[in-house]
Amino acid sequence: MVIHTIIPKSVITGQLRSKWDRKNGIAVFPGSSDFSNSVKDERAEFNIWEVQLDPKRYEGLARRVISESHDHCLNFYMGDRVKMGLLEWIVWHFPQVDELHKKMILEAHVIREHRNYWPTIYGYVVSGRMNSAVELLNVSVKDSNDKSDSSPEYVLKWRHWQQECRNSLTGDIQQHRHLHRLCRSSTGNVKLATDIYKSRKVKIISDLLQILCGDEKVLQELSNEGVIHTWYHLLVVHILFRNPTTKVYDLHYSIDLSLELFYGDKSRLGKLDEVISAIFLLDTVRVIKEASYGTDLREYLLLEYGSSLMSARYYLEQYISRIPLDSEKKTRKVLHVCEKYGLSTDLADICREECMTAIRREKLGSAISWALYVKDVTLINYIVDCYMSAYIKDGNADRLAIVDDIGAAITLTGQLAFLGKFREFHTFCNTGNLVDAASILVLLMVDGLASKKYWWMLLLDAIPLFETEEILFDSDQTYELLRCLTEIELSLRGPGDSWSNRLTLKQQVHKNSEVLHDALNTIRIALARNLARAHINEEQ
Amino acid sequence: MAFAEVHSRVKKRYNLQDNFQSLQGHENLLIQYTEKKISKLRWRPDPKGHSSHENIFATGTWDELHNVVNIWNYEKGRTFREDTHQESALNEPQLITSMHHQGEVTELKFIDDEKLMTSSSNGSLELIQFSRPRQELQSISKWKNIHHFSSNSCPCTGFSVNLPNIITVGEDSRINILKIDVQAPIATIEDNISSCSINAVTCEGISEFITVDSMGRLKVWDLRQPYDKPAKVMVLSGEQTCLQCIDQHPNQPHVAITGSHDGSIIIWDLRQDKYPTVVLKAHMSTVWEVRFHRHFPNNLFTCSDDGSIWHWDGSLITSTNLPTSIRNFSDIEPANATNPWLISDVIRNKIRITSVAPHNKLPINSCDIINQDLICGTDGEAIIIAQDLLLK
């Protein structure tokens, strides 16, 4: 159950959700011909199911309702203003207006005269699609063959009419950008206005303006005429034109009003209406109660699932830390969910966990990529240590090739930069470029790029460089290296630099003082020889 | 330092916003809900020798208590509704048969029209017989636990079949080479140097195959050479971006396209030395699958965790409208001139991308195309079918 609820499941978003097929849950895109009336179908279906109580079908619908409500909670209420989310929602859910438009274009010679012309414009306006409405209004102007000039009389009348319109627009609505634009284009366009005036469409334009003003009577008329199909469509229109700044917690006023306007009598409410109004009010418990009506079978699961979706973010956080991540694919998916909802702490935790698992499995390549992904310095340093101990163990420098392609991230930590340089040192040694190898060694040791615990191993690796025919280190450099050697010895003997360094060094040589002793002796002899040769060379 | 040089090589990184369009109001789009999350789906190839009138595809699920392999039959067309006397919704695919699958299905491929193979998150590989007349699925053979950590099982992330060889890869950074009639792997390559998950594999020829891994490396392996080292290692330099999937151009196997964790599409010319030809900033999230159309390789399909499925149309880039310099060059090297995907400077302006299901928001894990019909499987427990796509 836990897993099921996390990576958002069954949430059929956007348009995919628009049509719920009668048979077994097929969503069809609104382009298909039987799309219209889908909402009515749904309502009818729901009522049929109330009678028949076919649990399987009911379950499907209930799931859909819950999926939708998930959408509401996550998207509509992201901010406390609900308008924009609702608008988007309504556009996808009431595509009938597009159908009308399409039919009209196919059938009409002169669009303006088509019987669907004004219903389409109404449809656009009540869906908040002002741009489409304005476009259609403009088409009508282009269409018009009426070339008559605007006579002074018309202009006068029109001005008077425009003033009336202006008066009817109240301040609150003026501020609304879309409305403003529509008003401007319908009142500011002289030709259109005269056209409308001439064709005695004053009723229509005043209706439109009344919609824009949110006049209840007109809204009710529109509901009766079927331009507004459902009460929740009415709700959106209401919010859009009456109260565009509605906050989530004020929503119930609008809901009550819309229900009243649409049904007149609350007793006519169907099950679906109850569920939807509960969803709008974020009344989780009521939604689940209503939605799981009639299905005893999966009520528990439904409750669990529903509640987890409803209080999305909190549950998401809680669940994300509890998802068993048994494959990398799943991990990556969960990471995307974290990124999407800004759960950066969980993201970092997951990466660290994956990194530690990889280290336990000795998959250092995976480990370092996880550590780099989350840019965790401590982890990176730890992995570098793992690499070095593996190298000390088997002397195989090939696996250090991993750092070749890390790129700019190599400067993230000093340790990682050291590993990069160490790899470079080995590459130069292998390719016979000993001069460069020697200069890297000095850089690592003398300039302190390498941690002290690796000095011993570096010097051991460098022994061949001290014995080459060509003298690679001058006397000053050799003195410095000797100083490093002495420091190693001192730190081993007395209470040296730091306890942990000594311990690590001892562990590295398996607490076998003889091996260590031999190694240090060899290094010292090599360095001494090199020093002698350097001196002779320099004197010459 | 070395990285500075490496970094400067990433020179072609394009944003593709200008080339983009969405398929609006597509009437040939159908959604079928399956009640299980789909991880992979594949069309069945036509039976040999004759073309089939049936459109059959297989789906595999993941992240479920009981994972299944399903076989669906999809008859194209619309049903006639008697009540309204109108043509109605598109036909729905019908479930033919179903079979329980141990572990999540991580890869699914038809070997021929009667056999399919699946890999599992528990590290095994299974060969399944599909009998059309009897409408049933039957397990023929199984390679168990071929991918594993020391004691635990480990997901087998993918496989590639080039009979008689089967190559499997897994999160344990192992590569197994199997023969279809031999129970144990005939060879196992352990990649100790990279030691990270290998995410996908594809067979270039009988003896060569390509793997991509979580550290952004593309490796070409040659079965004729000793197994301990890849024949070639190419890297997505400096970015450490995990490569998730790969597909090869059907006619020109030296062209490979991979998808990465950050949503980029990376085009590789395997004749090049080390670096990819072009990196295209594409999807918003992990690209789970890239597929060339087998017969019209100018058409590429990519799907992503951000819920998008894109149709890349490279047909505008043909040898005729290339700059003259390249056209003249084509006498010497015809492959480059006719392969639109390799010409990086042209690609940016001429490629057209269509978002096939622009309203889908949930991750699309897999897609496959046969003829003009595209299927996608999503985490929304749905199969999206887009039929009669415009191919060029």
From TrEMBL, chain A:
Kindly state a single biological-process term from the GO annotations of this entry: mRNA export from nucleus
Statement: the UniProt record of this protein carries the keyword Protein transport: yes
The primary site where this protein sits is nucleus
Any Gene Ontology CC annotation: nuclear pore outer ring
- InterPro entries in UniProt: Nucleoporin_Nup85 (IPR011502)
Compartment list? Nucleus, Nuclear pore complex
Q: Does the keyword Nucleus apply?
A: yes
Function of this protein?
A: Functions as a component of the nuclear pore complex (NPC).
* Subunit-structure text: Component of the nuclear pore complex (NPC).
Instruction: Report what the protein is called.
Output: Nuclear pore complex protein Nup85
Q: Which organism is it from?
A: Trichoplax adhaerens
Automatic annotation (TrEMBL), chain B:
Q: Where are the WD repeats?
A: 236-278, 280-313
Record-linked SMART domains: WD40
**Name used for this protein in its record:** Uncharacterized protein
Task: Give a yes or no for keyword DNA-binding in this entry.
Answer: no
Coiled-coil annotated residue ranges, if any: none
Q: Where in the cell is it found?
A: Nucleus
Q: Which Pfam family, any one, appears in the UniProt record?
A: WD40
Read off the SUPFAM superfamilies from this record. WD40 repeat-like
Keyword line: Nucleus, Repeat, WD repeat
Principal place where this protein is found? Answer: nucleus
Gene Ontology CC terms: nuclear pore outer ring
